[in-house]
């Protein structure tokens, strides 16, 4: 009986180890970034429309989309160019409007930059929390002489407030 119990215990440990082993694509480190790292970039001074609510930042304008940029903290250990995934969180409270996000980088010289394709939660989707995964390409090509950031367009607040909650950067 004792040998059988030890054998069953050993088998359960082996099965548990197999089931809980992380896949090679899982992140080893995650940097969470809140909306306090974001600011409006609208040229006409629409920063007054950028408000922080219980779910994050949103646009109070009923007619103008609000462009927002969020800086990405980095250090010598975890640089955005090494990221394996980015997840952008938000809350959709509109049946007709959508939030779009893309990853970008600005050149150190200040002359230009580049952005990836926009990813959207889609207009008309169900109301509720959403997660977007923009393409990493603009960050993968970056060097220490560029500034990576997240760009979001918050739609006008016409039939419900869409909110940007924050984002996470996953590293290997």
Task: Spell out the blueprint of helices and strands.
Layout: H1 2-20, E1 29-34, E2 38-40, E3 50-53, E4 56-59, E5 66-71, E6 85-92, E7 100-107, E8 113-115, E9 119-120, E10 128-132, H2 137-140, E11 146-154, E12 163-171
Antiparallel strand pairs: 1-12, 2-5, 3-4, 4-12, 5-11, 6-10, 6-12, 7-8, 7-9, 7-11
Characterise the protein shown here.
- This protein is mainly beta.
- It has a single domain (26-171), classed as Jelly Rolls (Sandwich).
- The chain is 13% helix and 39% strand.
- It contains two helices and twelve strands, in the order αββββββββββαββ.
- The chain has helices at 2-20, 137-140; strands at residues 29-34, 38-40, 50-53, 56-59, 66-71, 85-92, 100-107, 113-115, 119-120, 128-132, 146-154, 163-171.
The whole-number mean of residue pLDDT values reads: 77
The CATH class is identified as Mainly Beta
In the CATH hierarchy, the third-tier topology is known as: Jelly Rolls
Work out the oligomeric state of the chains in this entry: single chain
Helix content: 10-25%
The topology string of helices and strands comes to HEEEEEEEEEEHEE
CATH-wise, what's the superfamily? Galactose-binding domain-like
What is the terminal separation in angstroms?
Answer: 45 Å
Number of helices: 2
């Amino acid at each position: 009986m004792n040998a059988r119990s030890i054998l069953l215990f050993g088998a359960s440990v082996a099965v548990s180890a197999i089931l809980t082993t992380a896949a090679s694509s899982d992140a080893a480190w995650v940097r969470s970034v809140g909306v306090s790292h974001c600011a409006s970039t609208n040229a006409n001074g629409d920063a007054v429309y950028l408000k922080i609510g219980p779910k994050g930042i949103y646009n109070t304008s009923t007619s103008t989309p609000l462009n927002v940029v969020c800086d990405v903290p980095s250090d010598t250990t975890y640089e955005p160019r090494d990221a394996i995934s980015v997840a952008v969180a938000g809350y959709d409270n509109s049946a007709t409007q959508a939030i779009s996000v893309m990853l970008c980088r600005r050149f150190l010289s200040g002359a230009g930059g580049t952005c990836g394709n926009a990813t959207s939660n889609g207009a008309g989707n169900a109301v509720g929390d959403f997660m977007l995964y923009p393409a990493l390409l603009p960050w993968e090509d970056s060097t220490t002489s560029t500034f990576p950031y997240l760009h979001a367009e918050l739609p006008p607040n016409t039939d419900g407030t869409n909110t940007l909650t924050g984002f996470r950067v996953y590293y290997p």
